[in-house]
Design goal:
The chain is α+β, with helices and mostly antiparallel strands and 317 residues long. The chain has 14 helices and 5 strands.
């Protein structure tokens, strides 16, 4: 069964987790830990993202990041590929280093950011590697306590009081008494349910709308582009002929992007067919679709799709 694509949302807060293949170690010595941090830093420079925390353990790692302009897949491919090539070369081996694909949990920032920072920093305690979180060398907790790191960590967003001393804030971030409190925090954040999103009801409804659009069943029968364009023009409150004309206003550009997104991703039209219909280059259509997709407007698209379906159903009655 093919895998569903990830929920890749611009501005989304992601808890990234990846484990060693067959439960094996991803770090054998101190140099390996340093290399992971080095490759995370170089990836952050090539594909900028906000990092709020990380922890590297012998057999897995956690990264808490906010995706900016670059797709999550580009960020993680760059980072993981660098390390896999290094690891296999160093240990004269071939094949996978990490188990399956990485796990990316989309999280509601305003409600869960601080809890997640505490959660990942407590992982060495949960695994019995140390008694106190600050004793683990390979985590961003050291940054919260005023030390330097190869990776740029955004501590200001996490800390409640900008005037609080960083060392005190670090102690507060790690202010759980031990494994029992750490497990309590784990179940507060991650209930025993497999779902790649955590947040309140409104947040989950919003993400569910995106999922229905991204993973929903596509229609068996396509409707003509001209008919689809007419429906979208009506929804966007513009005249249909402006979509295929030379106008460059924002509302017309948005309607064209919606038409391209809907026709290509939902009705399986080729980019070249869409471009020919609206009298634009295929590269222009592709750029418009990607710009809409990564601008966080998927919920708008879901609403438009519902309107398209509603108008089609009315026309068929």
């Amino acid at each position: 069964m093919p895998r569903r694509p990830r929920i890749d949302h611009k501005g989304g807060l992601y808890h990234i987790i990846n484990k060693g293949v067959k439960g094996g170690n991803i770090c054998q010595d101190e140099t390996d830990y340093l290399k992971i941090l080095e490759y995370l830093r170089t990836t952050q420079r090539s594909y900028p993202f906000k990092c709020y925390g990380y922890v590297i353990l012998p057999d897995h790692f956690h990264i808490l990041m906010e995706r900016l302009n670059d797709p999550l897949s580009c960020i993680m491919k760059s980072f993981l590929l660098k390390y896999v090539l290094y690891f296999n070369r160093k240990y004269s081996r071939k094949g996978h280093v990490f188990q399956d694909r990485y796990k990316a949990v989309l999280c509601q920032k305003e409600h869960y950011l601080r809890k997640l920072v505490r959660y990942i920093h407590m992982d060495p305690v949960r695994d019995g590697l140390v008694e106190e979180a600050f004793q683990w060398k390979w985590s961003s907790l050291n940054v919260y306590m005023g030390m330097n790191s190869a990776v740029s960590v955004d501590t200001d967003t996490v800390l409640d009081n900008a005037h609080k001393r960083l060392a005190d804030a670090g102690q507060d971030i790690a202010g759980l008494s031990g494994p029992d409190d750490s497990q309590r925090l784990k179940y507060e954040i991650y209930p025993p349910l497999e779902f790649p999103v955590i947040g309140d009801d409104n947040f989950i409804r919003k993400i569910s709308a995106i999922c229905r659009m991204a993973h929903g069943r596509k229609p068996r029968k396509r409707i003509p582009l001209s008919r689809l364009a007419g429906i979208i023009a009506g929804i966007c409150s513009i005249k249909e002929k402006r979509i295929t004309g030379s106008a460059r206003s924002r509302d017309v550009s948005y309607a064209r992007a919606v038409l391209g997104y809907t026709a290509h991703l939902y009705y399986d039209y080729k980019i070249t067919d869409i471009a020919r219909y609206i009298n634009k280059d295929p590269s222009t259509v592709t750029h418009a679709i990607n710009r809409l997709k990564y601008a966080g407007k998927e919920c708008d698209i879901a609403g438009i799709l519902r309107a398209v379906k509603s108008r089609l159903n009315k026309a068929l009655r």
